[in-house]
Design brief:
By secondary structure, this protein is mainly alpha-helical. The chain has 13 helices and 4 strands. The chain folds into 2 domains: 6-226, Rhomboid-like (Rhomboid-like fold, Up-down Bundle); 237-275. The chain crosses the membrane at residues 79-102, 109-128, 134-155, 167-186, 192-213.
Length: 277
């Protein structure tokens, strides 16, 4: 087993520090998360990067960092630190730009997490290491990495169109495509030695990208389950909590405007102090 690379370790530590700060400081969290309106209207482009270091909870953080660790061990030593750094951040930004395009008409859409960057590492590994296999935690089952990649792409395309599970499939798909394209640039020979899996991954991905640019109405799919079932991801929980806190704050401020601060109960004063941090 390869030891963890210095850059991978640094990225995990950086993600941990920023996530800790964000989970304990809502203002910090809100300032650096991905937000369509803030990026497109206020030109706050740093969010395309900073949002990738925030996570909604420690489970979200652990899942992304474990995947980062598993797929970075051979990759960092094979391509070197500078190229690994380019791959990581290009995939992160690429995934977020794709999400920005998909949700450009949803000004309140927000997101967080390193999923785009991690997906880029996964797809680059699939391209650069043809014989690679992917195992499942706690299960002695392994499948070819390329088969996982194809299934991942098809599921992401379906997820973007149906919007059934509220997972940020567009970030995963965008980051993954960028990662695979960078892998091809780094080692063009894989187009001959590993051409079939790469073609099977790229053709549906690029075709889908072309169609949504030329015919965006294809994204509109009636989902029979959307009105009866809603599954929340960590990003959705963050958005829901944010809206709930804002509603609480608005109610307290409205009471102050009507009756004055002295009319607040002790519980309301404590809540006001908490929400104002």
């Amino acid at each position: 087993m390869e030891e963890i690379g210095i850059l991978t370790l640094s990225l995990i530590i950086a993600n941990g520090i920023v996530t800790y700060k964000g989970l304990n400081d809502f203002t910090f969290f809100d300032k650096f998360s991905f937000n369509v309106d803030q990026i497109l209207v206020n030109k706050d482009y740093k969010r395309l990067v900073t949002s990738g270091f925030l996570h909604a909870d420690w489970t979200h953080f652990a899942f992304n960092m474990i995947t980062l660790y598993l797929f970075s061990r051979g990759l960092e030593s094979s391509i070197g630190i500078p190229l690994f750094l380019i791959l990581y951040f290009a995939s992160l930004i690429g995934g977020n730009l794709f999400a920005l395009y998909i949700h450009k008409n949803h000004p309140d859409y927000t997101a967080i997490g390193a999923s785009g960057a991690v997906s880029g590492l996964v797809f680059a590994s699939i391209g650069l290491f043809p014989g690679m296999e992917i195992g499942f935690i706690l299960l002695p089952v392994y499948i070819p990495a390329w088969l996982y990649g194809i299934a991942y792409v098809l599921y992401s395309i379906y997820g973007i169109k149906s919007q059934r599970d509220n997972i940020g499939h567009e970030v995963h798909l965008g980051g993954g495509i960028v990662g695979l394209l960078i892998a091809i640039i780094l080692d063009p020979r894989i187009m001959s030695t590993n051409y079939l899996p790469i073609i099977l991954i790229l053709i549906p991905s690029l075709t889908f990208l072309f169609l949504i640019i030329k015919k965006p109405h294809l994204l509109i799919v009636e989902n029979p389950f959307s009105k009866s079932k809603k599954v929340f991801t960590v990003e959705d929980k963050y958005n829901s909590n944010k809206a709930s806190k804002q509603t609480e704050l608005d109610k307290i401020l409205d009471k102050i405007n009507k009756k004055g601060y002295d009319k607040l109960t002790k519980k309301e004063k404590d809540k006001l102090n908490e929400l104002s941090k």
